[in-house]
Amino acid sequence: MLAVEADAVARMKNAIDDAFELAVHLVLDCHASVLTAGVGKAGHVASKVAATLASTGTPAHFISAADAVHGDAGAIRAGDVILIFSASGESDEITRLLSVVKKLNHPVIAITASADSTLGRFADVAILTGKIEEACPLRLAPSASTTAMLALGDALALTVMKLRNFTADDFAMYHPAGQLGRKLIKVSEAMTFRAGENLPVASDTLTVGEVLSLVSRIKRRSGAVILMDESTKKISGIFSDGDLRRLVTADAAAAMVTPVRDVMTRNPKRIAQDKLAAEAMALMKQYRVDEIPVVNENDEPVGLIDVQDLVVLKLFDMEG
Length: 320
Fold this sequence. Notes:
5-stranded parallel beta sheet
């Protein structure tokens, strides 16, 4: 069954033709909404494709073909493009809906098996799947045909997405929750606990004791302090809890009067504030550090991102 469905999807490469290109431009140039429709299993495909279009920058909604001919066609507005899924292209609900939208002069894109079907003949653009043998043992239940239609619907939606230059920032705006949203959170959003007045930063001319006294006034505890060169105002190093433990273990009395520049980690890894938080997580894993300074375009420190910030965002959970 899996082989039958995989073969059906592979054959859809033949459907990427001039008609597919016209369909892409109809969707891309639509200034209203794309309304998807279908009956039965094809209706579920239509609903999913509407969701994919909507989440990738194209306003889209699913409309029930059965309900549309009982009044819901009133939801269709000027400028809408209708995208209809039907393997046979002959279902009563589909042909009746087709009649309504053609009278309203809306462009119709069909994803169907045959150009000779009612839907194939009267649609403005027909993307043809060809006859598909179902994976069902009885060769009856929609399975391979709906998988093929879904693949074409995704191809249409994601091609339009690419032509819109839909960015990761756009994607994050439409997916603020769940794992997808968390993956697209920027460093500037994740570092909010350790920025501004809560930024643990000190001059590298101080002693370890002076640095600890300075950062102890900060309300938000951090596992490291960013050290700065007084003359350049750039990051010169970082001093972590681990550095302090090793220093105190060796000689607790001498530790507090040790110049911090003598024991700091020089030229630490850093990340730009406009990078993804997931990239900060990758750096932490690669170099086995728990804190990374965040810098602006001038390489000046504007924040500190801590492993605990990423744990709160569940980024570590997603990556195992």
